[in-house]
Amino acid sequence: MNGEWPPAGKHLNDFGGDWATYQAHCYAEYERDFLDGTPTWPVPNKRFAIKRQPLVNGLCHTFWHIISEGPDEESRVPDLSRCERVCWPRFILDEFARRVCPINGVWDPAVFIREWFSRTVQRR
Known about the structure:
Blueprint lengths: L18 H17 L25 H7 E2 L7 E2 L1 H5 L3 H12 L9 H15 L1
Antiparallel strand pairs: 1-2
């Protein structure tokens, strides 16, 4: 695997503190990862789906869920650290698909978690 793992995201400061521009950037990354192309989902009899409706502030529901936090859907608010990691879900799904055995479909989550943790700790 090349590059940072997981990849570092952009910060609000990279956009001069302009929330609208930053949100547009994050949504463009989300569109690229989930709307323009979907991840490979290697788990038999389980489907991968994006919840597009209801729109939240004119944006796909799953995007809003990824970048915000709160006790319920009606009171969620943007979380800058989640925005910085908007590209992580697709990256992790691709890593998951890469690690599933093509012969029997078996995946060992412990291996994935150990690798992810060791790479994340090394970045700090």
